[in-house]
Design goal:
The protein is of the alpha+beta class. It is built from four helices and six strands, in the order ααββαββββα. A six-stranded mixed sheet has the order 2-1-6-5-4-3, with helices on both faces. Strand 3 and strand 4 form a beta hairpin. The protein is globular, with a radius of gyration of 20 Å. The termini are far apart.
Length: 167
């Protein structure tokens, strides 16, 4: 019996940790869903309320980073000048708690098939989007977006030509 007590205690502790992680993951997923819905509908107040003051957004380019204020201003500008609609079709959501390394925290990755329709004459574009969010204390602190910008540009009629040095 005495040998079973440590096993029971450890099992209980592991169950509590897993349960806590699941609860946090569910809450964070709801926050991310709210944020995405606000983004694709132009609800800037909700977007702003879900971003931490220390928010940093990154992507899709390696050097593309924005603060909270820049991020909201960018979205406002795009909705005012460019976007007619955004159709966001979620395909998968994955949560992960990272406990070691530079990206410690609770993360939500949201995958989607997105169609953007423009009001300025550009043709609509459709692309796969992967957005990753770190959420803490009910707010999004960090996000990274990944999508093929070259494919989006091709759909808008752009062409690519190698530099003369490669030809």
């Amino acid at each position: 019996m005495q040998k079973l007590i440590p096993v029971i205690i450890i099992s209980f502790m592991m169950a509590c940790t897993s349960s806590d992680e699941a609860v946090v993951a569910e809450k964070n997923t709801k926050i991310v869903y709210q944020y995405i819905e606000a983004s694709v509908s132009g609800d800037f107040e909700t977007m702003e309320s879900l971003l931490a003051e220390i928010y940093v957004g990154a992507g899709p380019g390696l050097k593309d980073t924005v603060t909270k204020a820049q991020h909201i201003a960018n979205w406002k500008g795009r909705w005012i000048n460019d976007f007619e609609s955004i159709d966001y079709n979620r395909t998968e959501t994955v949560t992960k708690r990272i406990t070691l390394g530079p990206y410690i925290g609770d993360w939500v990755s949201d995958w989607a098939y997105v169609t953007v329709t423009y009001k300025n004459g550009l043709p609509p574009v459709t692309f796969w989007l992967n957005s990753v969010f770190r959420v803490r204390n009910g707010l999004i602190e960090q996000s990274r977006v990944f999508y093929d910008t070259g494919d989006v540009m091709r759909q808008q009629g752009f062409t690519f030509q190698p530099p003369d040095s490669i030809q």
